[in-house]
Amino acid sequence: VANHPLGGADGIILIDYFSRFFDKVLFPVNDILMEVENMSDIFLPVNKHGSQSRVGAKLMEEALASDAQMLFFPAGLVSRKKKGGKIEDLEWKKHFITKAVKHNRDIVPIFITGRNSNFFYNLANLRSFFGIKANLEMLYLSDELFKQKGKKITIKVGKPLKSSIFDKSRTPEEWAKFVKDKVYNFL
User: Fold this and answer.
1) How far apart are CA 180 and CA 1, in angstroms?
2) What 3-state DSSP class applies to 82?
3) Mean pLDDT value of segment 160-165
4) CA-CA distance, 26 to 39, in Å (whole number)?
5) Which secondary-structure segment (H or E) carries 172?
6) Fewer CB near the last or first residue (10 Å), C or N of the chain?
């Protein structure tokens, strides 16, 4: 699991990196990215705008039950600029915790450096200020990808967390925050 500071760039970096070590890498992505045919053997469909289809849910369960390495961005959205200027993910969803426990899968915390342009963050803040629900800034993620050209992006990979640590002493939401905090402690 990793933070999601850049959008497409961080996904491409993780796929490239982990494909060097593992035969099968799978990555849940939104319906828009499912249209990238060259990546269809790596991408798993996730419906971001409604309930997950039975086919999508079945594919996800089969992937989690397999020996494939799974890459997750638990926030589900690209990082945003917080008050004070810090770039950070939104709340991490509990899904990756509940699935890790159910399928006895270790979780590897990963931190990715990087940031998008001020335009991207300002648009996100403006959209939020006006109460616009549509994720307008997502339309600019392809531009943001090309703005990363020539920039250094570092990934820091932590030690695996055994699924057995995610016990009943905390809720899945609290465990998700625990893992997110571990990722951001790589700073």
Assistant:
1) 9
2) coil
3) 98
4) 10
5) helix 172-184
6) C
Q: Are 32 and 48 in contact (CB under 8 A)?
A: no
Q: Which residues pair with 28 in a beta bridge?
A: 44
Q: How far is CA 175 from CA 54, 70, 83, 95, in A?
A: 27, 18, 25, 11
What type of residue sits at position 66? S
Tokens of 157: 């990979």
The SS3 call for residue 120 is: helix
The answer to whether the CB of 169 falls within 8 A of the CB of 31 is no
**Backbone phi and psi for residue 157, each to the nearest 5 degrees, phi listed first:** -105, 125
- The three-point CA angle 6-9-11 to 5° equals 95
Does pLDDT of 48 surpass 90?
A: no
For the chain, what are the domain ranges?
A: 8-184
Model pLDDT for residues 69-117, shown as the tens digit of each residue = 999 999 999 999 998 999 999 999 999 999 999 999 999 999 999 999 9
Residue at 102: amino acid letter = K
Amino acid in position 187: L
Angle made by CA atoms 175, 47, 127, in degrees to the nearest 5? 80
* DSSP three-state, residue 6: coil
Per-residue pLDDT tens over the stretch 117-143:
999 999 999 999 999 999 999 999 999
pLDDT mean over 8-14:
92
